[in-house]
């Protein structure tokens, strides 16, 4: 322990680690933002917040860097346990090393397909069910051909799921990835998108059943743009809408693979 | 050979999914964490304890209720909450007041209410039940804390609370009226960075555990107990604790369970989750004494479970 006020300098290991971590997180967010990869993780409506926080992290890191080497005149040097930096370094390592990608199809099984859709009221017995909000119903009933876009994806899939008989024989075009829920036949798969409210941790898979003779040649996770006609089929003991595929095209994973219902 | 290949692709898919979920939780929390350490460091260097004491109402009731309703004006997320609460308590705000704010604000606020209404397709009953339950649980918990704990219950000095022991500039940490503005600003930036690391590691640890839980947990396992009047509540509370999604998104998750879970358990999920989840719990345990953390956890479990049970009885779940 140094007590003297001689021009004696010491290297503050903790300040050094803090500077590396703060600047590392600032660099990570700026990099992901500049390469448009943030959309793989969070709803774009939060992008500004994340970018703002990276600009705030930068001066914090610089200040820590400035006190890495400074005159020694403290009585005590309490060192933080080296292990406590491990979570930060692990996350930074993971973020920079493991390639950027979208959530893969095998997570759909964990989360359950179209689970969010059957919503009316939790206790149908006690109150009369309130009218379900159907913003697109009138427009869709008119249309001969339904073009599904990211903007109206959740509403259209909900309509098909809840009112399958309303849309019989209409033509439909949509894009998504292949997933096979349990209990479907060899000539069926579901075409699915992940729908995200805040971040990938709350992703819920939404999809529609498809009929195709050579369905088996498209493995789970293949991205397709399909056109077809809406028919009624049975799945899990109830009537569901199914798209009888007339034409399809295999496509690349879109730059924005998720559907963000509130950002458009 | 093919099985090995499938196993390897499955494994690498899981690693990538885990990475995405982990980073998404972190990026979602990052702005709130940064904001919180800035607010905390600013409070530390620019606001004196006397100022805070003068602002606060004297009477306990008028202390707790406004604190619990503050979220209506400041729609905050629970991510950086513990950081703010610790600093407020350090600055002399009564423990129960700070806790009332911490528990209620992430739920009783316009953003969470709107998200809940949207997720449940305009069911005002669910919105009312969620916000009402949160307010009752937060108020009761804060009141019980005020009866049991008289002190601050803060743990002994953390890295950002180094007391005046040194002979350099170190002892000037804390609001000091003699310092120039730029010196205070420099200290604020330093404190913010230090606290970011100190508290951030618990947030990261919590996020890592949450991401693991999401990868490993198959919701089919959950739904087995979904309709049970008693067990469904416990399962959903545990699920909310592990999941660590933000309070404006969890309603959508809850809505996705609506056909398979009792209504009380969904309310318990949407009330208990934002009040206490893995990352908050780790940060709380770092900032406050064990006896307070244990008391808080037990009281919250009992109150959330009890309210959910009442809801199930009335709603025939």
Describe what this molecule looks like in 3D.
- The complex is a heterodimer of chains A (264) and B (317).
- Chain A is α+β, with helices and mostly antiparallel strands and 264 residues long.
- Chain A has 2 domains: 9-97; 106-250, OB fold (Dihydrolipoamide Acetyltransferase, E2P), CATH 2.40.50.140.
- Chain A is 29% helix and 23% strand.
- Chain A is elongated.
- Chain A starts with 8 loop residues before the first strand and ends in a 14-residue tail after the last strand.
- Mean pLDDT of chain A is 83; it is low at 118-130.
- Chain B is an all-alpha fold.
- Chain B has one domain (14-152, 167-315).
- Helix content of chain B is 71%, strand content 0%.
- Chain B contains 14 helices and no strands.
- Chain B has helices at residues 2-46, 49-55, 60-69, 81-90, 95-104, 110-119, 124-148, 181-216, 219-223, 231-243, 250-255, 263-275, 278-287, 290-315.
- At the A-B interface, helix 1, helix 2, helix 3 and helix 4 of A face helix 1, helix 8 and helix 11 of B.
Write a brief caption for the model.
The complex is a heterodimer of chains A (264) and B (317). Chain A has helices at residues 13-34, 47-66, 86-97, 106-111, 137-142, 153-162; strands at 9-11, 69-71, 145-147, 171-179, 188-195, 204-211, 223-235, 238-250. Chain A is α+β, with helices and mostly antiparallel strands.
What is the topological layout?
The complex is a heterodimer of chains A (264) and B (317).
Chain A: E1 9-11, H1 13-34, H2 47-66, E2 69-71, H3 86-97, H4 106-111, H5 137-142, E3 145-147, H6 153-162, E4 171-179, E5 188-195, E6 204-211, E7 223-235, E8 238-250
Parallel strand pairs in A: 3-4, 6-8
Antiparallel strand pairs in A: 1-2, 4-5, 4-7, 5-6, 7-8
Helix pairs in contact in A: 1-2, 1-3
Chain B: H1 2-46, H2 49-55, H3 60-69, H4 81-90, H5 95-104, H6 110-119, H7 124-148, H8 181-216, H9 219-223, H10 231-243, H11 250-255, H12 263-275, H13 278-287, H14 290-315
Helix pairs in contact in B: 1-4, 1-8, 3-5, 3-7, 4-5, 4-13, 5-7, 6-7, 7-12, 7-14, 8-13, 10-12, 12-14
């Amino acid at each position: 322990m140094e007590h003297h006020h001689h021009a004696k300098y010491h290297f503050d290991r903790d300040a050094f680690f803090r500077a590396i971590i703060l600047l590392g997180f600032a660099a990570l967010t700026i990099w992901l933002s500049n390469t448009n990869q943030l959309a793989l993780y969070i709803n774009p409506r939060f992008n500004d917040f994340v970018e703002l926080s990276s600009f705030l992290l930068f001066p914090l890191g610089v200040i820590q860097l400035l006190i890495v080497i400074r005159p020694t005149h403290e009585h005590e040097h309490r060192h933080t346990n080296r292990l406590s930096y491990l979570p930060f370094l692990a996350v930074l390592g993971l973020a920079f090393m493991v390639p950027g990608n979208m959530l893969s199809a095998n997570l759909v099984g964990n989360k359950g397909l179209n689970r969010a859709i059957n919503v009316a009221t939790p206790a149908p017995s006690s109150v009369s069910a309130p009218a379900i909000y159907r913003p697109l119903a009138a427009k869709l009933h008119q249309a001969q051909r339904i073009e599904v876009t990211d903007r109206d994806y959740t509403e259209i899939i909900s309509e098909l799921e809840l009112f399958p008989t309303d849309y019989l024989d209409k033509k439909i075009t949509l894009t998504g990835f292949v997933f096979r829920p349990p209990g479907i036949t060899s000539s069926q798969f579901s075409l699915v998108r992940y729908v995200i409210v805040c971040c990938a941790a709350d992703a819920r898979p939404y999809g529609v059943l498809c009929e195709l003779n050579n369905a088996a040649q498209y493995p789970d996770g293949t991205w397709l743009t399909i056109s077809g006609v809406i028919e009624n089929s049975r799945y899990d003991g109830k009537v569901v809408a199914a798209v009888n595929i007339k034409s399809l095209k295999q496509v690349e994973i879109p730059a924005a693979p998720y559907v963000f219902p509130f950002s458009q | 050979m093919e099985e090995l290949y499938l196993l390897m692709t499955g494994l690498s898919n899981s690693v990538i999914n885990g990475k995405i979920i982990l980073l998404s939780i972190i990026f979602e929390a990052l702005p709130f964490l940064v904001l919180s350490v800035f607010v905390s460091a600013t409070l530390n260097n620019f606001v004196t304890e006397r100022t805070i004491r003068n602002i606060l109402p004297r009477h306990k009731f008028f202390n707790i209720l406004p604190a619990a309703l503050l979220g209506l004006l400041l729609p905050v997320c629970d991510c950086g909450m513990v950081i703010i609460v610790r600093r407020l308590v350090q600055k002399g705000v009564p423990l129960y007041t700070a806790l009332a704010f911490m528990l209620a604000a992430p739920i009783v606020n316009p953003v969470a209410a709107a998200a809940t209404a949207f997720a449940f397709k305009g069911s005002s009953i669910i919105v009312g039940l969620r916000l009402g339950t949160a307010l009752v649980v937060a108020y009761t918990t804060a009141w019980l804390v005020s009866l049991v704990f008289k002190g601050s219950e803060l743990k002994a000095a953390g890295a950002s609370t180094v007391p005046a022991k040194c002979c350099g500039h170190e002892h000037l940490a804390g609001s000091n009226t003699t310092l120039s503005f730029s010196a205070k600003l420099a200290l604020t930036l330093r404190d913010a960075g230090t606290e970011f690391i100190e508290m951030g590691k618990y947030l990261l640890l919590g996020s890592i555990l949450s991401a693991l839980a999401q990868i490993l947990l198959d919701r089919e396992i959950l739904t087995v107990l979904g309709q049970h009047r008693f067990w469904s509540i416990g399962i959903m509370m545990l699920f909310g604790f592990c999941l660590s999604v933000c309070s404006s998104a969890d309603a959508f998750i809850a809505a996705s369970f609506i056909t398979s879970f009792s209504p009380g358990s969904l309310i318990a999920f949407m009330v208990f989750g934002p009040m206490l989840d893995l990352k908050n719990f780790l940060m709380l345990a770092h900032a406050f004494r064990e006896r307070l953390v244990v008391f808080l956890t037990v009281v919250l479990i009992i109150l959330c479970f009890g309210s959910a049970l009442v809801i199930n009885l009335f709603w025939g779940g």
